[in-house]
């Protein structure tokens, strides 16, 4: 079952990247897709730590292989953000951007994959039957 929902999360990652890239291409403002993905950075990261604890307690090591590296990458990107006060924490144009006129498909791949994996993992953990051994 773990292999099935890890495969599903990879498939959802690809779909989310395609949707985000189309959004990125079709708008007048090239930062719209990035802004949509960045608006929920902090809440998702804070919600990710209980998910890591649940997967450790349930000894689901295969999801952790996918979850831990991308979580650490995402936390590092949030910490490198140049924010001077709390109001700028949701500023959507200051994360992982080398050149604002250039499309950053790597950012869309990581973030699209990250959010879709979290959605699938939260859904699986919430609705999966518990072991009755």
TrEMBL record:
SMART domains recorded:
Cornichon
For whether the record's keyword set contains Transmembrane helix, the answer is: yes
Which UniProt keyword terms apply here? Answer: Membrane, Transmembrane, Transmembrane helix
Could you tell me the Gene Ontology terms of the biological process aspect for this record? vesicle-mediated transport
The transmembrane residues are 40-57, 105-124
Pfam families in alphabetical order: Cornichon (PF03311)
UniProt keyword Acetylation, yes or no: no
Q: Which InterPro entries match?
A: Cornichon (IPR003377)
Superkingdom in the source lineage: Eukaryota
Query: What is the designated name of this protein?
Result: DUF4149 domain-containing protein
Q: Which organism is it from?
A: Strongyloides venezuelensis (Threadworm)
